[in-house]
Design goal:
single chain; 182 residues; mainly alpha; 7 helices; 0% strand; globular
């Protein structure tokens, strides 16, 4: 109960300090892999917004010619992450991000249910296992969202406020997009 490094201490109890060191290396590699995925998938949001509505300070809303990556969005996200890490508020903001991410995961599953009902023949929508796989994904997403809210109600409420604060910008951008098309 007093341990600050629970996993390493457990492994050390049966595989000596060398096993604990290997576990630490494996956890670091796993964390870097997860960070890689978060940054690369996270860059899609500002890239898509900049390309469609031109709201963000990412004027380079096009892909890199050789690598076809959203370079402007990646630079924006990397700069924002560095700023947050250097400000000392990264852990606080990360907890807000985790809460917001699980809300979005739950809403994504609901959107998939709605889309499959509205457009049953759409080829881009996953068919295998639906609706059971979507439901199996949705249930833990809702459970984790509710659990995070119960454990950290203030941070979770702040995260929800940040998310809801973006709603007027979405509707403004959507209206501006409709005006441009007409």
């Amino acid at each position: 109960m007093q341990s600050q490094h629970v996993a390493s201490d457990v492994v050390q109890s049966f595989a000596d300090s060398r096993g604990a060191a290997w576990l630490t290396v494996a956890m670091a590699i796993s964390a870097l892999g997860a960070l890689h995925v978060v940054v690369l998938t996270g860059a899609r949001i500002p890239y898509a917004m900049a390309r469609r509505w031109r709201l963000l300070p990412i004027r380079q809303a096009r892909s890199h010619r050789l690598f076809t990556t959203p370079s402007g969005a990646l630079i924006f996200l990397g700069s924002l992450a560095a700023l947050l890490a250097l400000s000392g508020t990264y852990e606080e903001l990360y907890s807000l991000f985790v809460f917001g991410a699980w809300i979005f995961f739950a809403l994504t599953a609901i959107a998939l249910f709605r889309l499959r009902r509205k457009e049953p023949n759409l080829s881009a929508v996953p068919r295998w296992g639906h609706p059971w796989t979507t439901l199996i994904f949705w249930l833990p997403a809702v459970a984790l969202t509710v659990n995070l809210w119960m454990v950290r109600p203030v941070r979770s409420s702040l995260g929800l406020a940040v998310i809801l604060g973006g709603v007027p910008f979405f509707y403004h951008a959507q209206a501006a997009s409709r005006l441009r098309r007409s």
